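Reply to dn_fold:

You asked what the input looked like. This is it:
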Amino acid sequence: MGMANLGNQLYTGETSLDFVGRRKRSYLVTGVVFLLSLVLLVVPGLTFGIEFEGGSEFRVSGGAAAGESTATDAVEEVVPGTAPQVTTVGQGDVRVQTVELDTAQLDEVRAALAEAYDVPVSDVTSTSIGPSWGANVTRQALTALLVFFVIVSVVLTVYFRAVAMAGAAMIALVHDLVVSAGIYALVGFEVTPATVIGFLTILGYSIYDTVVVFDKARENTQAAFRDRDRTFAEAANLAINQTVVRSVNTTVVAILPVAAILFIGDFLLGAGTLRDISLALFVGTIVGGASSVFIATPLLVDLRRRDRAVRALDAEVAERRASAAETVSAGAAAPGGAGGATAAGGTA
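and this is what came back:
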């Protein structure tokens, strides 16, 4: 069965996947992943770049062939106990990050690195960022995330005219952010301003995917309240089925170029400057697409299940179905059934 045929059958309801009915399993799986991500944020924790923590950075052009340990030894000879972080970036460049050094120490470390890698001093660049600058960048990053959440919650509440939809979407967003950050901590990539931009981008994608599903859920639930032919949960589940193929296709198309940047650009070509944002986009896009299906809409059903209108709808639908089942059962139990009645009529 092709994706197009499957999508048509899911959209019309001919085939249905019970996402809402199995939401407890979804909650269990996503809850375990969420808790593991929280643990990873503590141990080993995120590795913040000097933009957030402050410090000094050196870059040796074309020094990768000599190895990263060469830089560690050279720095510790000048400033013992600094425990520098050494990584290879770009086309064979070596990046060395240390605590903030004064001007004299910067010059000494540059000379030591140039000697260790046998390159001119001009091939070793250095920059320093003070702790106040790092604190300011951290504050601005947290402010950006907070403003994003506030604006999104207000817009969703106004657009859908339902606090429950906004609440479910915000819970899914928090899940996406924590899981993405947890995987980032597990991999050990450095958190830079580009990483924050990546997180904001994937949150935007996640909320976009959730809005698509919620828009269909609102349409279906309004029809259910009008026609009284399906429960609120069934209408919401139909919305997921009608959009799941679209969500999968959109997610796959979105992660293909990001995967090319991450795996080809970083791991094969060594363009290390791209890893900060590409990993956040790769993980966040997958997590965001999944949360709109397995978290946001099932949560919406749970948040609305105590509403008087929803309970009345569910009770009326259950009563109608019970009445219809009794009618069918009574017809089948009648002497001769429908066929017997016809035969009796013919004999008369």
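The beta strands are 47-48, 55-60, 85-89, 93-98, 124-129, 190-191.
Hope that clears it up.
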